[in-house]
Amino acid sequence: MSLKVLGIESSCDDTSASVLEDGVICSNVINTQAIHEQYGGVVPELASRAHQQNIVLVVKEALSQSGFKLKDIDLIAFTKGPGLLGSLMVGTSFAKGLSISTNKPLIGVNHLHGHLLAHLLRKKGEPKSDTKFPYLCLLVSGGHTQIVIVYDYLKFEIIGKTIDDAAGEAFDKCAKVLGLPYPGGPVIDKLAAKGNPEAFKFNKPKIKDLDFSFSGLKTSFLYKLKDNLKQDTSFIKHNLEDLAASLQATIIEILLEKLTMAVELTGVKEVAISGGVSANKGLREALTNLAGEKKWKIHLPKLQYTTDNAAMIGLVGYFMYLRGDVSSLEVLPQARLNFMDF
Ligand code: KG4
Ligand code: ZN
After folding, report:
1. Closest ligand to residue 143's CA
2. Test site for ligand 1: of 141, 165, 187, 191, most ligand atoms within 8 A of the Cβ
3. What is the pLDDT of residue 341?
């Protein structure tokens, strides 16, 4: 008998549901809330409301696309944190309601744990990843920047993290001062492809060990703009592509320097990336080149699994269930859920 999981994700601004059979994706429906674009960032109150509007439709669509009925599902996995509390409450309450009404087990999943396994996600008919444990995962999203050593599907350790902003935040905040829409990462990525990455230099942080910092880069970027705008009020317009390319190159350099250090310190040469920023073309290209040079084996998640999705939550739920981890109905969403709590 196969094990069918319904995954539900609602930690930020994506309402997503997915059905997996024995850890393989049957459907993965994502509704990205467009309402936040006009505000230059995610507005928590609006995100919760949009989840409330979307969740029934998204879950119904995921079931319908999978070809299974609710009664066929064996367990319900949902994101219990970290994330925006109001958003998490929608997914948590919905999952609890489903669990009570169908009498199926409920599993609360740590969102970051989902990102760690993103490159292992596959649809029916697609080959299984040849990843070997342990591997290093550079998790780069809008809220997190970490290097994690993954020993097993359910066992991992953070060996480096940001002490302030996340890499995605650096993309988004710098894009905002350039007058670009939210989320800024994908827009910078496109512009960067046409610009000169060496046109401008920005300060890189001097942080010890495997930790990151991005707040200094943001300030350095802002000052560069301010200084130049004094001489030329059209500075941004005339240099947009070069600014994007130089900013992106600096972020990539910061990430890959620490990743190289992590490989050297741990001796682990199997490397994955995940999270929204892992969709970045420049990062993928630079990592591929570096891996060729250093003889690392790399794993890049498919683009649709880089950003938030319920398939990664369902996959973690599947492994947790096999280990016997089931949540009680008293489970609560936790905005600041620690990475190691799952
Ligand atoms: O993983 P994610 O969907 O949500 C969080 O858990 O944070 O990541 C969203 C972040 C945003 O900061 C967005 O700008 C960034 O990922 N992002 C990118 C790209 N696509 C998304 N950053 C750089 N290049 C991209 N192509
Ligand atoms: Zn995420």
Report:
1. 1
2. 141
3. 53
The minimum-distance atom of ligand 1 relative to the CA of 184 is 14
Please give the order of strands across the beta sheet that includes 24-32.
Answer: 24-32, 14-21, 4-9, 75-81, 106-110
Ligand 1, atom 3, residue with closest C-alpha:
307
Q: Which ligand is closest in space to the CA of residue 277?
A: 1
What's the pLDDT tens digit per position in 277-294?
999 999 999 999 999 999
Nearest to 143 by CA among 90, 184, 202, 84: 84
Q: How far apart are CA 318 and CA 3, in angstroms?
A: 8
Q: Both tokens of residue 119? A: 């490159």
CB-CB contact of 2 with 20 (8 Å): no
Q: What are the phi and psi torsion angles at 150 (to 5°)? A: -105, 110
Query: Side chain identity at 311, as an amino acid letter?
Result: A
Q: For 250-279, what is the mean pLDDT?
A: 98
**Strand, coil or helix: what is 288?**
helix
Whether the pLDDT of residue 267 is over 60: the answer is yes
pLDDT tens digit string along 29-57?
A: 998 888 877 777 777 888 899 899 999 99
Mean pLDDT for 171-200 is 96
- Residues within 6 Å of ligand 1 by CB: 12, 141-143, 168, 171-172, 183-186, 189, 275-277, 279-280, 307-308
pLDDT at 298: 98
Query: Across the chain, what does the average pLDDT equal?
Result: 95
Question: Residue with structure tokens 């894009």?
Answer: 175
Helix (H, G, I), strand (E, B) or coil at 20: strand
Tokens at 131, concatenated = 């990843």
40, 181 contact by CB (below 8 A) = yes
Helical spans, DSSP H, in 148-280: 167-177, 184-192, 215-231, 235-266
